[in-house]
Amino acid sequence: MSENKDLPVAEQAATVEGVKFVYDFTEGNKDLKDLLGGKGANLAEMTNLGLPVPPGFTITTEACKVYLESGEEPAALRDEVSAHLDALEQRMGKKLGQADDPLLVSVRSGAKFSMPGMMDTVLNIGLGDKSVQGLARQAGDDRFAWDSYRRLIQMFGKTVLGVDGELFEDALEAAKTAKKVTVDTELEAADLKKLVTRFKKIVKTEAGRDFPQDPREQMDLAIQAVFDSWNTDRAKLYRRQERIPGDLGTAVNVCSMVFGNLGPDSGTGVAFTRDPASGHQGVYGDYLQNAQGEDVVAGIRNTVPLAELESIDKKSYDQLMQIMETLENHYKDLCDIEFTIERGQLWMLQTRVGKRTAGAAFRIATQLVDQGLIDEAEALQRVTGAQLAQLMFPRFDEEAKVQQVGRGIAASPGAAVGKAVFDSYTAVKWSRSGEKVILVRRETNPDDLDGMIAAEGILTSRGGKTSHAAVVARGMGKTCVCGAEELEVDTKRRRMTVPGGHVVEEGDLISIDGSSGKVYLGEVPVVPSPVVEYFEGRMHAGANDADELVEAVHRIMAFADRKRRLWVRANADNAEDAMRARRFGAQGIGLCRTEHMFLGDRRELVERLILADTEDEREESLKALLPLQKQDFVELFSAMDGLPVTVRLLDPPLHEFLPDITELSVRVALAESRQEPHENELRLLQAVHRLHEQNPMLGLRGVRLGLVIPGLFTMQVRAIAEAAAERRAAKGDPRAEIMIPLVGTVQELEIVREEADQVIAEVEAATGVQLKLSIGTMIELPRAALTAGQIAEAAQFFSFGTNDLTQTVWGFSRDDVEASFFTAYLEKGIFGVSPFETIDRDGVGSLVKLAVEAGRATRPDLKLGVCGEHGGDPESVHFFHEVGLDYVSCSPFRIPVARLEAGRAASQSTGSDHR
């Protein structure tokens, strides 16, 4: 649209040659999700496949973008919609909202990425005071017509006119109470007619206008409402949670209505081609007779399992099974399907690649490989590191004594324990105070999203595997149990009554098992995940369900290891962590933090070093530390024998090894008041004051310590060299790498390296062992990244310390800012995700890329890695693959995630060789 920059946005769109804002279902395909949204693209694809899809058309995401940018629809949109509506009316043989036999349509959102329940839908558009009579005559069913009309007013009033939805719900409940019935299907035509009158009064009072009787006005306002729903608070919150870009916009699908509320031979349902909770093949889904689609996903009426449709309507059931097989083979994946049966006629309303739990994702990926539908590279794209991390979470101990109080539908697996809360606001409030909570509702709706995010798990007394709670929880990886009917949830009194009469008050601890659907009172202990036991070497594939999962994970990890180019190392500081990391698949240690070796009993030696007044005292302290350091490295090199071990020399400020200044001041003051000896405490206090810095993370630390404290770094280098020599003499294969931290200029590195080379030569001469120790540096300061070409002249490897690099690039103190304003930044959309969690590609990432290119230009064989927390972050691993690093390093428990994501990154590129 840049050709007409001086025109309003809406007119720009209208004047660009070839811009098309509306597509008939016969014109699109599944590959046009950017333009038609997921729902529109898949409706078009099913139409192309010859499946029974009600006719309709899609308004593109481009039209939405113009509307959101300018506040006006594109000038050409109304005429395009009119042309497609005319064609639809001709095809259906009736006009929208005509009095005798009205055409009715639905207006539904459809973004590129599935956002279940986050945006708006309006059904039965075209009904009015006159056309409802015609619909009743045409259908031969007064109750159906008035039920459809009350649904339109209710949805339109809430969605389009902004009326509080609870006002309609309260009126509906009052009508059921007056009739002495419990479900809305028991209301008769006369009751529904009265309800329509009541609903119209609510609209008039609350919206300040009458419910529109013009069908085209209904449709146009509904289209605008769907556009507007892209930027509702709940939609923006969901996008932030799922990291969906905010500039995509939504398409709008206008589809001729088919009716599932025409009686017992009609109904609506949701089906999955495989179980989205487990991945097992079979008949999975929910069906609800005499209902419209929103009744199923809203969870307001409990459904029957899809398998029961066979006895209710075998013809439709058989046709549905055949269509499900067609769709799964066509999409080569689990498909989530919405359908309606209108008086025995099956109609397909939507299909999409279905959301699934982490366990299901791994099982399905391997199943599809075995069926020949996808290859190993594609299987890797069907799972994520985040899903693997979920599978490594603990589960409930089956041997524990428990008090089960209910059982619902296992909607999303996991073991969740927390205090029961009964509304979203409380869930968020308590969670921010550090409490773990379980959100308990009769059913959830999109307004509960922030509470669902805050909670450890979600428990509902209504709904099934396709209810709002289940679908959203699976997408977020949250534990969820739905449809626990025996639990009486009273949200107004903030309590839940369980069988036997026991009352769970708000704040009481409960536990829910999303794998079994069981609900327990109190806190149930947890045990390690079978996937962790597999990585630890304590579990193997077998016949039971857990073993099936382990086998699927094993196979996917094998795919990833064959594909990946990146090595995966561990951040480990002792032999125990190193051995665990090795069991998890680590190919070395990318970061050994030697400062962790100076704690405990050794703190006194460090204090003596800091307090030393003479060179002899300093040498004595270093001499005492040397054998301890050496033994540390002997154990570490033994645990990682044959694999590289990168040892970072002492990094933090020395005052961190001294007592807290406040505590020490109190001790000195008390000793003085009691006239007790306190010479040592006084010297310590003087040292603390001497070393005190306003901003210690930017002060005397890292390489600066090595240059200012004589002998400190050379002692550490000697310990490394002697340990390596001892291991070689014992027929081991130590592969030590010495890393100098916080270098900002090549001169710092040159001085330290010269001293280190001299010490290594001395150890080689004394032991007669040839050592091949490489020396490199951490790139964790912007200046180091900008002068990487110079630094590479003195470095054999770079390891990017992205934690500090992020701090110094952003000017953030991580310990302070995450607690002070990061929440606000995330809520306002300044961050999509914390830059300490996922690499900031534009800022920090640009410096990493620049340093990689400059470093390798100077030294083509320069080894490159990363050892910050980003090394185990799935999205960041892809970035490090793209810029050409050799390895990532992360904590032991994140190694499997990094291995998987390294494989996924390589499978997305071409010509990647495994190292």
Report the strand count: 31
What is the radius of gyration?
33 Å
Distance between the termini: 47 Å
Strand order of the largest sheet: 12-22-21-14-15-16-17-13
* Share in helix: 40-55%
**Percent of sequence in beta strands:** 15-25%
In terms of per-residue confidence, which ranges show pLDDT below 50 for 5 or more consecutive residues?
A: 1-17, 910-915
**Number of helix segments?**
37
Structural class assignment: alpha/beta
What can be said about the biggest beta sheet? 8 strands, mixed
| Average pLDDT rating | 88
Assign an overall shape.
Answer: elongated
Organism: Streptomyces asoensis
Domain Pyruvate phosphate dikinase AMP/ATP-binding: 74-302, 308-359
Keywords: ATP-binding, Kinase, Magnesium, Metal-binding, Nucleotide-binding, Pyruvate, Transferase
InterPro entries: ATP_grasp_subdomain_1, PEP-util_enz_mobile_dom, PEP_util_AS, PEP_util_C, Phosphohistidine_dom_sf, PPDK_AMP/ATP-bd, Pyruvate_phosphate_dikinase, Pyrv/PenolPyrv_kinase-like_dom
Report what the structure shows.
The protein is an alpha/beta fold and 915 residues long. Helices cover 46% and strands 17% of the residues. It has 37 helices and 31 strands. The strands form 6 sheets. It has an 8-stranded mixed sheet with strand order 12-22-21-14-15-16-17-13. The longest helix is centred in the C-terminal third of the chain and has 25 residues, at 615-639. The radius of gyration is 33 Å and the shape is elongated. The two termini are 47 Å apart.
